[in-house]
Amino acid sequence: MFPLTLPVPLPKRLQPMSYQVQYRAPSPPPPGVTRTPEEIEAEMRKIEAEYEKLALVHIE
Q1: CA-based nearest residue to 40, from 24, 29, 52, 53
Q2: CB of 47 closer than 8 Å to CB of 24
Q3: Is residue 21 a contact partner of residue 54, using CB atoms and an 8 Å limit?
Q4: What is the pLDDT of residue 56?
Q5: What's the CA gap between 38 and 32, in Å, rounded?
Q6: Would you say the C-alpha torsion 37, 43, 49, 55 has a positive or negative sign?
Q7: pLDDT, tens digit, for every residue of 19-39?
Q8: How far apart are CA 54 and CA 9, in angstroms?
Q9: Inter-residue long-range contacts of 56-59, CB under 8 Å, 24+ positions, other chains counted
Q10: Secondary structure letter of residue 30 according to DSSP
Q11: Predicted local distance difference test score (pLDDT) of residue 53
Q12: Model-level pTM?
């Protein structure tokens, strides 16, 4: 039996593209409400995760 051979596509090259995102600072809490440092950090991590989604690289 012969081994199965499959064509291997050549790798494509990365193409530079413009990338701009407006920074959104976390919104301030309503008057009279205080947030813990953990709550502030959780909100910052959520915003950072949204920005990271924009910076993914896809090769077709």
Answers
A1: 29
A2: yes
A3: yes
A4: 67
A5: 18
A6: negative
A7: 777 777 777 888 988 888 998
A8: 27
A9: 57/14, 59/11, 59/12, 59/14
A10: P
A11: 77
A12: 0.48
